[in-house]
Amino acid sequence: MSRGPPMSRQIQIFCRNSGKYIDVEGGSTLHEISQMPEVGLRFRPICALANNKTEHLGFQVFAPKEVEFLDARTSIGREVYVRSLCMMLYRALHEIDPTLRVRIEHSIARGLFCRVLDSDGRPHAVDDAFIAGLLAGMRSLADRDLRFTRFEKRTPDVIDMFRRQGLDDKASLLETVSEIYTSYYTLDGLADSFYGPLAWSTGAIRVFDLVAWQDGMLMLGPDTSDPDVPASPVTQEKMFHAFTDHLKFNRVIRVASVGELNRAVERGETSDLINVAEAMHDKLIGRISDEIHERSRRGGASVVLIAGPSSSGKTTTSKRLAIQLMTNLMRPKMISLDDYFVNRCDTPRDADGDYDYESIYALDLERFNSDMRALLRGEQINLPTYSFELGERVERERPLRLDDNDVLIVEGIHGLNPELTAAVPQDRIFKMYVSALTTLRIDDHNWIPTSDNRLLRRIVRDNKYRHTPPADTIRRWPSVRRGEERWIFPFQENADATFNSSLLFEIGVMKPYAEPLLETVPHNVPEYTTAYRLLRFLHIFKPIPETQVPSTSLLREFLGGSSFHY
What we know:
There is one protein chain. The protein is of the alpha+beta class. 37% of the residues lie in helices and 19% in strands. The strands form seven sheets. A five-stranded mixed sheet has the order 2-1-7-4-5. A five-stranded parallel sheet has the order 16-21-15-22-23. Strands 8-9-14-13 form a four-stranded antiparallel sheet, sandwiched between helices. The termini are far apart.
């Protein structure tokens, strides 16, 4: 006797949007549930949280869950929007010429920098007419409101499918991850994979633009301040060149993607990769040291300001720069902007009511400028000392004077902000920007966000040195990021030199440290959404032995075992 399909049963979900329990049919998709009058949505959802995991709207609900629908204005929704936009770009390019490839390299200038390559991997000319054709194709996809359909198949079958489509980088990565089944999406007959959900359909992705930029193009999603219009590019020439230098380096050593890194781990080549990457750091810092020495010889660069966002490695960079300066016969003296914090009771508050230590007004600007002017006049000052335990300044004897051949290194997040040194002669200052500009890509259509790299560093460091639970670090991260967007990133191009502190091997090394910490984040807290996403991301990396990392490595600032004193 034949059996029909299993009978559906009613289940109950709790919808955070409405604050109500809602009865639904087992097997209903999140898209179907979002249309129910009881949910009462007043926006078009782009994805949802189901038990604090980000899910696509085609996700079927077979058991009771807590559900929250999100639109494209939320941070998670924006990520889904941009991923969906990437697949539309790929589909539009395939329609123009199936032999061409698009490589989405990194986030910059408020967009995603993309290169178009021919079948041999050579750059393809991108002019206004070519971009106009791509834009027309993407807009046609949006107008047709086509489904992004998610599938799961046996990994060998997906690998074969990707190779037939010319997605060899995706196939190579899957061969190193060893999953039995792999999920992917299709759009208008074309398959692709992403490390996070896509939108329900192309009709939800209508605000975007493509512009020629550098030797490629910039794909722009909605402006965060006005989501109804595409973002406008900003000038980031120095940041772009910092990215480009490392991308060239990755190509030379033939490790530009996670799949290639995993292959190097399998072949036992990580020790050589680590040594070469560390040598690259030494070389770049040495060049900056030479530039500072030359400026100092001509009567400038008595003060070096080193700035950068959280967990960019500013402290170790400062110490390694000091060593390089000594090889140029200069005597470095180092201070931290942290000692110029105002008393905690005078610290500004952020939008959440927490102390805003990222604000430049958390610093005693008058005292800092006065001290810098006195030092440049050859006078002796007494450095302030800030006690984080007491939350206030503690005066003690810390005399400082700049003598001949001395150079003062000042490390802190606000080094590039003109307001920090408004009363200091600018010809005596050298500004250096440090950030972990991740150039290792997952595959041609999936990049590694620099902020994720820095968050992993911070989770590991905060737990090791401050015993901070990972959930607390994740909870604080949005406030940190808002502070960076306001107080650091607008001043990046003020730098005299930009140092990329990322190391292509670092996520493989951090994996054994970060995974156990992320697994401790409770499932019933909002921070689990980020913890789960990072765990899925770390899963695609093969672990790299921490013992191969030298004690002078910048990564030791976060892992421990550094030969530098912090």
